[in-house]
Amino acid sequence: NDTPVSLEVYVAASGAATVKINGADPTVNTFSMTFDAGDVLTPFWYMRKDASAACNPTLRRLEVGYQTDISN
């Protein structure tokens, strides 16, 4: 719908992963994931769309870094 969406993925020191959509916890399609100690993670972006969709998804910005609040 040509509407920008902010997606955030956080991985805490414990390995627990959390997701934010436009700064809020998702209300549908939630997931629970915990990585093992020592896992190496590689950020990537993959987008699929319905063949009949009128627009093409565009990655406008990708930030990668350490989570500053490791209590999450």
How is the topology of this model organized?
Elements: E1 7-11, E2 16-21, E3 33-34
What do you see in this structure?
The protein has 72 residues and is mostly beta strands. The protein is built from no helices and 3 strands. It has a 3-stranded antiparallel beta sheet with strand order 1-2-3, with no helix packed on it. A hairpin with a 4-residue loop joins strand 1 and strand 2. The chain is elongated. The mean pLDDT is 80.
Which keywords apply here?
mainly beta, 3-stranded antiparallel beta sheet, 3 strands, 72 residues, elongated
What is the gist of this entry?
The protein is mainly β and 72 residues long.
Strand content: 15-25%
Quickly give the structural class: mainly beta
How many DSSP helices? 0
Largest beta sheet, briefly?
A: 3 strands, antiparallel
Overall number of strands? 3
> How far from one another are the termini?
32 Å
Using only C-alpha atoms, the radius of gyration works out to 14 Å
Low-pLDDT regions = none
Morphology call:
elongated
* N-to-C order of helices and strands: EEE
For the largest sheet, list the strands in their spatial order: 1-2-3
